[in-house]
Amino acid sequence: MDKIKKLLAEQRALKAQFNSRRHFLKDCTLGLGGLALGGFLNSCSNSIPKIPAYTTDRSLNPMAAMPAPYLPKVKSVIYLHMVGAPSQLELFDYKPELAKLHNKPCPASLLDSKKFAFIQGVPNMLGPQATFKQEGETGNWVSNHLPHFKKVIDEVAFLKAVHTDQFNHGPAQMLMHTGSPRNGRPSMGSWVTYGLGSENNNLPGFVVLTSGGTPDAGKSVWGSGFLPSVYQGVQCRSKGDPVLYLKDPKGVSRNLKKKILESINEINLKEYQNFGDPEVLTRINQYEMAYRMQVSVPKVMDIDKEPDAIKEMYGVQPGKEAFANNCLLARKMVEQGVRFVQLYDWGWDSHGASPGGALDSGFLRKCKETDRPIAALILDLKQRGLLDETLIVWGGEFGRTPMWENRLGIQNSPGRDHQGDAFTMWMAGGGIKKGAVHGKTDEIGYSGIEGRVSVYDIQATILHLLGFNHEQFTYDFQGRPFRLTDVEGHVINEILA
To answer: Which CATH number goes with the domain that contains 96?
Structure first.
């Protein structure tokens, strides 16, 4: 009998506790749902609790800013991905020996046991389709295709022997940005915002800007994978409305939008109360963020009000989806505390079989479109005192062969096939050793012979500069811890200041 009384008493206590929690969630001014909703919007009406506009409690606000585990060198990242993989042999990797081999048959040793996307038969070698000169105090090499970049060459650190095991665009892009060539893993920007949150409550922590088209891998390269979906990238546009459906339909006023939002969140809060699903908090956060973005985004994304000298500096193209516009927007974003800004510029697939992309046509156009804005971005950040707290990363998804593409055995306009053995990337900004060069390729730029670094090493270095140990930065999924760098990666200390 005593045991039965004891059990009944425990049940009554549990019920009282449950009701108390239920009351806390549903009715109290400082209930969990109220904290989440109030924290996201700072109240829309009397029915929504009025509490401080921003809470640092991650269980209430998944985008709350968090301190890095270790002392960070930078607060933000601007990643410039040249979609299609620009040829290192026409930009930064000067190879005079390759020029001597121009149009001579490719040695069989360069083709044996190698996989190529398009090369068939035995192609001829293809000499550099550019002239090179040493620039700046460091005397680093740069081609004549980048006349503006030479002005900032002393600010960057080159990685001349990056390698990847992927030679098709989609998987290589996925590997570069998610650590896996297959779908399902979170992108780098998602990892960063998961770890650090956002310093601006009115803008996304992870913003994506595209020019020329969407990457071959699709929008998965800025997806959140198995992380909560609140950490996925938010795509903005430099032409038209910055975000699709940002404006309310005709007849929908701001006050009506508030009431709609209140009703939606009431349903979501009840669902969170019943099931405790963290994705419901994500949903609330996204609705609230969308509401706030209607006011904040148009102001931040308005480049027309920038001084004429700044617009001229970047080469802004009003009313167009342009890389130059996106570079200026990236500066404005990090200036407002956006954590990770990802720019994708499509059109660098320099195949000789397609005149639009060959090294003597489309490639030159892409160089012209990006050279000036990139130099302007570095100079603009520097003059505003932002370069020391921002990391800029530039690169493609793999490199290019030192021989003609030779698709179907035909030597068309000058173009190079895909190859992952060696390509060039560079970094600039906080924590980077200015003017450094790490890595070296052989005399024809085919393979790395010194200082080879992998995609995982790039990722580990980016995380390190943000204050993370990439081996300890994990997320449990399907019974085991995952990390961006999988089971590999080393910080590239040679380029760190």
So the answer is: 3.40.720.10
User: 208 and 327 in one domain?
Assistant: yes
Q: For 358-369, what is each residue's pLDDT tens digit?
A: 999 999 999 999
Angle between helices 278-300 and 323-335 (to 10 degrees): 110
318 CB burial (10 A radius; 0-12, 13-18, 19+): exposed
Measured distance CA(468)–CA(256) in Å, rounded: 44
Q: How many domains does one find in the chain?
A: 2
Question: Treating both helix axes as pointing N-terminal to C-terminal, what angle do 323-335 and 362-383 enclose, rounded to 10 degrees?
Answer: 20
Position 485, amino acid: T
Q: Are residues 439 and 488 in the same domain?
A: yes
Check whether residue 27 and residue 115 sit in a common domain. Answer: no
User: For the ranges 103-117, 175-189, 279-293, 427-441, which has the lowest average pLDDT?
Assistant: 279-293
Stated pTM of the model:
0.84
Q: CA-CA distance, 204 to 231, in Å (whole number)?
A: 9
- The Cα 17–Cα 37 span in angstroms is 23
Q: Look at residue 219 and give its three-state secondary structure.
A: helix
The span from the CA of 205 to the CA of 123, in Å, is 47
Helices 455-465 and 188-196: angle between axes, nearest 10 degrees: 20
Q: Where does residue 290 rank: exposed (0-12), middle (13-18), buried (19+ CB within 10 A)?
A: middle
215 vs 210, 248, 274, 478, 484, CA distance in Å?
Answer: 9, 30, 40, 29, 20
